[in-house]
Design goal:
alpha/beta
Length: about 130
């Protein structure tokens, strides 16, 4: 039934600021932008080995009112060095949600809340590397 990740959607009150922040983090510009009334209402990045989509949507288009605090599912993006990625995210203005934790041999996770209220997870996952190697 579930065949693969297509798009991770984050919400922001200021899509332009969020796009700049993620462009700095990722080292790339969004490949797609959709304006509404002259300002970006949606931007999308393609990232990683599988070119998964990270979309940032104007919060006014969220399907439900936003919560006062970050919550919900945590989506982990593979990184080669969790500690370094976590520190870089903090240096860019994210706040710690969960500091790096070893989950077992070959599995380390951490997560932050970006400046726009979204949880961003990073993970070293040896199974991911095995799948990419196939």
């Amino acid at each position: 039934m579930l065949r693969g990740l297509t798009t991770v959607s984050f919400f922001a009150d200021d899509v332009t600021a969020a796009a700049r922040w993620y462009a700095e983090l990722l080292g790339i510009e969004p490949y797609f932008t959709r304006p509404v009334q002259g300002t970006p209402a949606y931007v999308e990045f393609r990232i990683g080995d599988q070119q998964h989509e990270l979309g940032i949507i104007d919060r006014r288009f969220a399907p439900r009112p936003s919560l006062q605090e970050a919550g919900g599912a945590v989506i982990y993006w593979h990184v080669d060095d969790v500690e370094a990625a976590f520190e870089r995210l903090l240096s860019l203005g994210a706040t710690a949600y969960e500091k790096p934790v070893q989950r077992g041999p070959g599995f380390v996770t951490a997560s932050v809340v970006d400046p726009f209220g979204n949880i961003l997870g990073v993970m070293y996952n040896e199974h991911y590397l095995q799948m990419v190697g196939r």
